[in-house]
Amino acid sequence: MVGAELLAPEPxxxxxxxxxxxxxxxTQYLVGGLLIGLGTAVIYFGTGIxxxxxxxxxxxxxxxxxxxxxxxxxxxxxxxxRVVFTLGIVAGAxxxxxxxxxxxxxxxxxxxxxxxxxILVGVGTRVGKGCTSGHGVCGVGSLSDASLVNVATFLALAxxxxxxxxxxxxxx
Amino acid sequence: xxxxxxxxxxxxPLVLLVVLLGGLVFGVGLAVSExxxxxxxxxxxxxxxxxxxxxxxxAAVVSGLAFLVGTRLLDRxxxxxxxxxxxxxxxxxxxxxxxxxxxxxxxxxxxCPGAAYASLGIGNVPILWGVAGMFLGAYAQGYWRxxx
Lengths: 172, 148
Description:
The complex is a heterodimer of chains A (172) and B (148). Chain A has 172 residues and is mostly helical. Chain A is 69% helix and 0% strand. Chain A starts with a helix and ends in a 5-residue tail after the last helix. Chain B has one domain. The longest helix of chain B has 22 residues, at 52-73.
């Protein structure tokens, strides 16, 4: 009776389904997220700055480009600490990797996905006034309506796009 | 209309030191959470592993509590004299259009700016393709918008 089994799944099957939502567990995700928030809080309490990661892309261009947008006052004023923030992120991730004794990890995602997707990320985060950290962490933490709209938009589009790419047989 | 005090405040050595400290913790968090791996992000977007909800949720809750304490109980930041506030941006068409473009890019690549920097830190050299793309995209939109 296949039908009856479908109607009344065994408890073990239900557990298996909920387990599949988090096949790698949740601990590292939660601890990592709390640390990301802690890093944001350290900068905030010391300086009053709500730090995002994507403005660095534009403010750093002001060192080498005369394009008007990159040389606006708020970018030139903040470009030094944004470089330091980015170097800190790189160094923090490197320090954790070295301390945990794991070897360097390399992605299998194809270069054209990283490069082409990266171009769109560069355009979209700067036109949209922020990224996963500026809107997603600081903006959502501020209950900003612009950030909530932006995050809902990019999440929906990212889910749709990733599933479409997968359906087209591109992996990884 | 120069504002020398606030101009210099963001460049003071102590500010840079605190930003470095915060950046280090932020980077450790991105490495611990595995969000620095595009594969983990793509697994989330493809509904194979919902763990990233804890990364973004955990980070937003902690920063939200910090902003609550800052705006309710504190006055000005010691190193810059800046008033504690929330991160509020104007909601306009750009916020939606940018979100659409960013979302498509994130879905194709599995990378966002902060996670890409951290990815370099965990030894993922091919991420430089993504970082190069992000700079190119940021430059293109800045160039285009400065011409208007």
